[in-house]
Design brief:
With 498 residues, the chain is α/β, with parallel strands linked by helices. Helix content is 35%, strand content 18%. The strands form 4 sheets. The protein has a 7-stranded mixed β-sheet with strand order 2-3-1-4-5-7-6, with helices on both faces. Strands 9-8-10-11 form a 4-stranded parallel β-sheet, sandwiched between helices.
């Protein structure tokens, strides 16, 4: 891989009405003709993406969108595409023409604020102002900034002084709104806009979390189990595996990569046990059998749940598997689009394992890419892939949508571990998630922490000891543990994890 994947880039999206200069601003920032520019309103149709380096931030993905005021049947489809971009926006640029602010701008700003998305407001085309003209766009722009000041904490970039104001005076919990007055056509204040973007970048992008380096530690060893099967891309590894190797190297840790058939032999040759074993979820049972219980074990998919999403929320979602009944609808969502093979993980294996575990005829539905139901109310569970191809904002947006609809959401690795009876062991590297699961088990079974392993090592399930496959599901669902109602005709409401 010679370029940074889109999923690891800061997503900076431009929003605004048609013909306010969004595309011109993007071209000015990148110093390239990324987007077609025309006096005709509505030139930009589908979102246009441009990956580049924005130093000192690093790799970013600029996204130019169609005007939010587009009209007609085709225009409505363009607006829908624009609103989908909100789901994955890490940093928003809301562009308005100097002296103009209306319902379109207010609605977009309100939605960005509700999503807690850092936003830079740009009043463009200030070159149209005339000195001394009381009705000029520049004068009107000053009045709008004053009006916004009454509702938002503003940081105003001043092209005259070229000063970079500090947001230190604002509360840490607030997202100050940065305002820049520009002219893309004349190149006015483009450097100030660039600085505003740097200042507004989310701290978690600058101090990005580790995938597994913090679980292993400098000078320690992780063993990565990488099956080479029909789903493995020819001549290369899949993205989570590559990212995990790089993260270990960045953390000054050692890395040993083996296939599942070679794991036991590799572990026997080590003088010191590894700190962690990570496997493809599809090889969970064999890897669990070959890995000593004293060595923590998990999967790449579960690592992605922590890295890209919300591990606690998705652990909670996995507990809803216990409530599934015949006829329930389960949505399996995959971020990337690929041609499914015969034993596809999302279309074949997960449905088979869940059916075997629940003993129920469940109705599985599948969606790929950015397609997602507007109404989730009829689903009892959403099972999502690890979202390795997305940025974290987009995955968190989906989790939030499910929570707002009262529908549990989990991911592939957690679902597989739960269905195969190794859920607790797969959570061993994550103390907070493991504690949450055990507390949920206490609520459901009455067993207290510290009870004998024979009583609580495999909560919610009866297992066949040699292979840890579930024999049958308990008749009593874990409604108390999950806050979900049982019954095929009842609506489920997920408890919220802050």
């Amino acid at each position: 891989m010679t370029t940074t994947p889109k999923s690891l880039r800061l997503h900076i999206a431009f929003f605004g009405r048609r013909n306010v200069g969004k595309s011109s601003l993007l071209n000015a920032l990148t110093r390239q003709q990324v987007s077609i520019v025309s006096p005709v309103a509505g030139t930009t149709t589908d979102p246009v993406e441009k990956p580049m380096e924005l130093l000192p931030l690093g790799p970013v993905l600029f996204i130019d969108t169609a005007g939010i005021d587009d009209t007609g049947e085709l225009g409505a489809l363009r607006v829908q595409k624009t609103r989908q971009v909100l789901e994955r926006t890490d940093l928003a640029v809301l562009v308005a023409e100097a002296g103009t602010w209306g319902n379109f701008e207010s609605e977009i700003l309100a939605e960005l604020t509700a999503r807690k998305t850092p936003t830079v407001v740009v009043f463009n085309k200030i070159d149209l102002a005339h000195a001394g003209d009381a009705s000029s766009p520049n004068r009107g722009c000053d009045a709008l900034v004053a009006a916004l000041l009454q509702k938002h904490q503003l940081i105003i970039s001043n092209p005259a002084t070229k000063a970079s104001p500090s947001p230190a005076c604002y509360g840490a919990s607030q997202l100050p709104l940065r305002v820049v007055k520009t002219s893309a056509a004349q190149g006015i204040a483009i450097s100030e806009l660039r600085q505003a973007l740097l200042d507004a970048a989310p701290p978690d992008f600058i101090d990005s979390p580790a995938i597994l380096g913090d679980l292993v530690g400098p000078g320690e060893l992780a063993v990565l189990v990488v099956p080479i099967d029909k789903e493995a891309p020819k001549g290369r590894l899949i993205l989570p595996q590559v990212q995990s190797i790089r993260d270990l190297l960045d953390s000054d840790a050692y890395c040993l990569v083996v296939k599942e058939r070679e794991l036991r032999s590799a572990l026997n040759r080590l003088k010191t046990p590894p700190k962690l074993v990570v496997t493809d979820s599809q090889a969970f049972l064999k890897v669990a059998a070959d890995t000593p219980r004293s060595v923590p074990m998990t999967s790449f998919s579960i690592l992605m749940s922590r890295f890209k999403g919300d591990l606690l929320a998705q652990v909670q979602g996995a507990l809803a598997i216990e409530n599934l009944r015949g006829g329930d609808r389960v949505l399996i969502a995959e971020a990337c689009s690929h041609h499914p093979i015969g034993e596809d993980i999302g279309r074949v294996k997960i449905p088979r394992w869940l059916t075997q575990y629940t003993g129920a005829k469940i109705h599985f539905e599948h969606m790929q890419g950015r397609d997602f139901p507007a109404d989730l109310a009829d689903y009892k569970l959403v099972i999502h892939c690890g979202a390795c191809m997305w940025n974290r904002r987009e995955m968190l947006s989906r989790i939030l949508r499910c929570q707002q609809a009262g529908v549990p959401i989990t991911n592939y690795g957690l679902t597989i571990a739960y269905s195969l009876g190794i859920f607790e062991r797969a959570l061993q590297p994550f103390p907070a998630a493991l504690e949450f699961f055990r507390n949920a088990n206490v609520i459901n079974t009455g067993l207290q922490p510290g009870a004998g392993d024979a009583q609580k090592t495999k909560p919610f399930q009866r297992l066949c000891p040699p292979c840890e496959m579930p024999l049958k599901r308990l008749k009593t669902p874990v409604a108390k543990a999950t806050g979900l109602k049982s019954g095929a005709n009842e609506s489920n409401t997920a408890a919220t994890i802050d």
